[in-house]
Design brief:
- The chain is mainly α.
- The protein folds into 2 domains: 103 residues, DNA polymerase, domain 1; 179 residues, hpI Integrase, Chain A (Orthogonal Bundle).
- It has 14 helices and 3 strands.
- It has a 3-stranded antiparallel β-sheet.
- Helix 1 runs antiparallel to helix 2 and helix 6 runs antiparallel to helix 8.
- The longest helix has 20 residues.
- The protein is elongated.
């Protein structure tokens, strides 16, 4: 097994030109897989069936490995088996049809509508910095934008008359997302009452600013969320992404089409959006258990 691993590592280094860090990662993952086979008294790679590979993945999960790490290990094993098949060392690729453990992903943390209301009302409406914070939070919940998309918004990206924002998502893909009356009012108040004071006669194209006219960072947004979660006395684990998750969950629960939500969130694959239907189903189940006479 060790000899086969060395052959594979040499192949991905010389013929495929993979980076040293990737090669080192593959080496660790395959060494772990080899140890697992040894513990199961499997002395030949062609005896490593799909069931064996699945058992390895489940063992990793039980050890506390996250789904992303397990997916990476599976990708490594798949590449290894493809190489072995190509070199006629094995006759069948046992790893070929094994799916990445997408279903093992934890459901996103979401807030109830009441919790969102409490969070959005936590900033002080008379404090210039908190007026800015409220505008940020309102826009994020209204649009489902990522934190990076919100902090990188430019003034010209927001059409206040129509109620649309243009944002640049992952892979530099541009999309248009609508926002409602509440977010519009908060942004208008921020533009009138807060932004001029933050600029202090400087010039900036960014919509949301820190003191001195500098653009906001993701770290600033984290601090904003942490501050108002504490003020709102919300006990759940809340991150900036929680508002994006809550946006998707709440509009799907009200009958929004999954494809439309996919477009608004900027997901390349609809399977990423479908995780929010799982959240809704969990909520339906909890309501059923709570109110059905025979739960």
């Amino acid at each position: 097994m060790n000899e086969l691993i060395e052959q594979f590592l040499s192949y991905i280094s010389v013929e495929r030109g993979m980076a040293n860090n990737t090669i080192s990662s593959y080496k660790r993952d395959l060494a772990k897989f080899a140890d697992f086979l040894k513990s199961k008294k499997i002395d030949s790679i062609d005896k490593a069936s799909r069931q064996v590979i699945n058992s390895f993945m489940m063992a990793e999960k039980e050890r506390g490995m996250g789904s992303n790490s397990i997916s990476r290990e599976l990708a490594c094993i798949k590449s290894f088996f493809k190489f072995l098949l190509k070199e006629n060392i094995i006759k069948e690729d046992a790893a070929n049809i094994i799916e990445s453990p997408k279903l093992w992903k934890k459901l996103p943390y979401t807030l109830s509508i009441q919790e969102v209301e409490t969070l959005l009302n936590a900033p002080n409406a008379r404090d210039p910095m908190e007026i800015r914070d409220k505008a940020c939070l309102e826009l994020m919940y209204a649009t489902g934008m990522r934190v990076s998309e919100v902090v990188n918004l430019k003034i010209d990206d927001v059409n206040m008359g129509v109620g649309f924002a243009k944002c640049l998502g992952k892979g530099s893909k541009e999309r248009i997302v609508p926002f409602g009356k509440k977010a519009k009012e908060s942004i208008e108040r921020y533009l009138e009452k807060s932004r001029p004071g933050l600029l202090k006669k400087r010039v900036s194209n960014f919509l949301f600013l820190r003191r001195g006219g500098k653009s906001m960072s993701r770290q600033t947004f984290w601090k904003i969320i942490k501050r108002y979660v504490k003020i709102a006395r919300i006990k759940k684990k809340v991150t900036p992404h929680s508002l994006r998750h809550s946006f998707a969950t709440h509009i799907l629960e009200r009958g929004a089409d999954l494809r439309i939500v996919q477009e608004m969130l900027g997901h390349a694959d609809i399977s990423t959006t479908q995780i929010y239907t799982h959240v809704s189903k969990d909520r339906l189940k909890s309501i059923h258990q709570k109110f059905h006479p025979r739960p």
